[in-house]
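Hi U.,

Before I forget, here's the chain from the pilot set. I'm dumping it here mostly so it's searchable later in email.
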Amino acid sequence: MATPDLKKIEIGGGRVVSYREAGEGTPLVILHGLGGRSESWAPQYEDLSNRWRVIGWDAPGYGESSEMPADDPDIAAYMGVAKDFTDALGLEEFHLMGHSVGTCIAAAFHKNYGDQLLSLTLAEAVIGNGADPKDKQEAAIAARIRDLKEVGPEKMAETRTPKSLSPNADPAAVAAAVEFAKGMQVPGYTKLFKALVRCNIFDFTCPLECPGLIVAGSDDSSAPREQVAEIAAAYPDIDHRIIDGIGHQIAFEKPEIFVGMLREFLSGVEDAARAAE
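Structure:
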């Protein structure tokens, strides 16, 4: 299957969100990470669309989605856009998955609108730097903005992206991830990066209102397995799994393993719900 065509939907206030979707059935909404976009999820569109309606959004400022109007939006503001997006699609109940900073948005959504979720999946969850002193947060933001200005997105992709994968990653996966990262849209990336730095995911963690899955990569330096375990501990009864031999590029590194986990998890959730009827 080719990557689904890009669609756009109005979400109110003159704003639009671009997205891709494939399949029918119960919706699975996917919120990408800092370096992602709606087309990140080709394996999910291809392998899960025979049972689920797989919907991958472009966060504000990504793809053809409207940018966040504020210079310094926080994760709660992105969550609000995600809520407007799912409402515009008419989704009353759905599975929600986030990757990287998308897990922070997903955690906030679950805390505020958990009654709409059939399941919550946190893939390579990150904590954020919100617990750090403000001056340290601002220094991290200033350094990243400086790198973007001095080096540019293409060079950053070539130098930073390989380090986000496992040291033992397939060279083809590394090349694909680097090429994908060159498509960065700097304004949208910068705003989401600021939100991540100022975020603390533990502001949004709470007892699960739906079945949950959290997945770590054994070689992930951006979301170290120890930190993912801390997040998992904040969600009693969450299904906590580790994929050996991958870094932070779960869409490019051994994607069939994560897709298989998702299929097993989502199927189990729906089978259990039917058995309980």
